[in-house]
Give the backbone structure.
Amino acid sequence: MPELPEVEIVRRGMDRAITGKVIRIVQVNRYDLRIPVPQDFGQSVTGKIVRSLSRRGKYIIMHIGDDVVSVLHLGMSGRIRIFSPDDSYVPQKHDHIVFTMDDGTCFAFEDPRRFGMFYLASNDWEADRPFISMGVEPLEKWSGQDLFESIRNKKAAIKSVLLDQRVVAGLGNIYVCEVLFRARINPVCQAKALDIAACERIVAHSRDVLNEAIAAGGSTLKDYQHTDGSLGYFQHGFSVYDREGHKCTHESCSSEILRIVQAGRSTFYCPSCQN
Ligand SMILES: [Zn+2]
């Protein structure tokens, strides 16, 4: 599933391609997505300018005209493919919505597994679910003190707590594993047992890991591709994720990376460096 860096890269690709352009045609091929696409979706956005694209957690927010907000989530397998005016659009079987802009730029929302979403929200979208209860953006104002306060009563394991979108938005399984390795914190440690110094390490390493992943074009696992079809390469920089049985990357450490399952998700960690 795409995590924050991959979603941010898709947002940037869309921003470069369509911001400031007017939507000329919207073709909806399937209305029965996870949240049904309204019948008047095309009518609501056609002829309006895309003012900006923002991101909140793993959601991309399209600000259209003066009064329309459309929310996009890639789900498990969703992709955005963009075609410049010089390329011709090549339809794929699972292209559910296709936009054509006034200059001929075109983009398709493709999602074979249909866990993704593309719906109209109100102008007051931040007051609606899921945004109303969404936690802080890790790349914006977030401090060790904030984290410390938000987890001080949580008995669950820190790994699971960091995956909770109400605590911090957009960090997913891959990047939480990497952050805890860098912060040298055991993923099974109770969240409320962490001191302020540990929280500060988590916040600082989250920022570093996410920024490095964005700079590397994200991590390509299974379905994720850039809007132009190219691939990210941060997966080559993983220290622990998907490295069960490999030697720990810390030179002074001779342990092997372990995999355990927490709340149904795989956790990868070094038992020596993270205890
Ligand atoms: Zn180690």
In short: The chain has two domains: 4-133, 144-269. The pocket of zinc ion is lined by residues 248, 250, 253, 255, 270, 272-273 (CB under 6 Å).
